[in-house]
Amino acid sequence: MTTRNRQFLLAQRPVGLPSRETFSYVESVVGEPGPGQVLVRNLYLSLDPAMRGWMNDAKSYIPPVGLGEVMRALGVGQVVASNHPDFAVGEHVNGALGVQDYFLGAPKGFYKVDPRRAPLPLYLSALGMTGMTAYFALLDVGAPKAGETVVISAAAGAVGSIAGQIAKLKGCRVVGIAGGAEKCALLVDELGFDAAIDYKNEDLHAGLKRTCPKGVDVFFDNVGGDILDAVLTRINFRARVVICGAISQYNNKQAVKGPANYLTLLVNSARMEGMVVMTYAPRFAEAAQDMAAWLAAGQLKSKEDVIEGLQTFPETLLKLFNGGNSGKLIIKVD
Length: 334
Ligand code: NDP
Fold this sequence. Notes:
Layout lengths: L3 E7 L12 E7 L8 E9 L3 H5 L19 E9 L9 E5 L5 E4 L5 E3 L15 H14 L6 E5 L4 H12 L3 E6 L2 H10 L4 E4 L5 H8 L4 E6 L3 H8 L2 E9 L19 H5 L3 E4 L9 H13 L7 E5 L4 H10 L5 E5 L2
Helix pairs in contact: 2-3, 2-8
């Protein structure tokens, strides 16, 4: 019997927003694993803003996806054939599986996950790269202290929603910036944020004044651009600005918009620092332990936005850039 593998390949490097034409859809026949290889049936794929950066032919923390290659995506799946001593048939793995039905190759960087301990999508959200990003960007780079004010942009998204809840667990006042009344209600009513600013319907400067009367000690920025600039005007002495992401800039056709207000860093003896989650790989187990304990105790809620169907990939990806997702955006491979 031959098994069909549906795949999305990177067909062209997008200028601006990606579209269906950015990818070519092909169907191939799945082969057998060679020495040191595994065959994995993909079950859930993680959709990440970083995918946009991987499409650019530019130097970054990871090489770009080559034209004609399967679009890179993290995911969880089940081993269906193995020629590798560390992975047995039936085991579930987390790794760079790609936007396709089956991964065939060396399981470089793959690790096992246990569906009996947590539902599989959770290994892409709180217990996966998303959770690790929120945990280390907040606690290591932002270093919030109890009583401080923490502001988070893209707060109703995957990373932001978790970072905000961790900041609450650490005793901070937490303010989320998100687009739309529904997302703001989610932050305050369900996730325990102290306040939210709907940047699409409220003047951001007024919103910051309203919600951060004592200024901002930690800004966890996922968005960049105008939002970064606005928050910079409200930072306190020795504030920490965490550059986790800059999603407002990823599809720019012009140059990235830098922070015009950066001199507030100078006058407040503040710092702005970037982070790449993989730097913290040696400490992932430590973070996963904390996250699992918080989840088990009901102190942390992991929100997943699961869309059914590999075929939807190009349109589903766009949700990250138009605010269509709430929580961690995941494709369930049908
Ligand atoms: P999200 O789930 O937060 O999805 C993206 C959200 O960003 C959207 O839902 C939208 O929410 C908001 N957004 C999109 N475009 C804009 C815009 N122009 N202006 C304002 N808000 C916008 O994605 P993730 O949680 O996966 O990622 C969040 C950030 O973290 C990204 O910047 C990503 O690159 C970064 N990241 C960094 C890592 C690292 O190692 N440094 C690792 C993982 C992620 P809304 O409706 O509120 O506008």
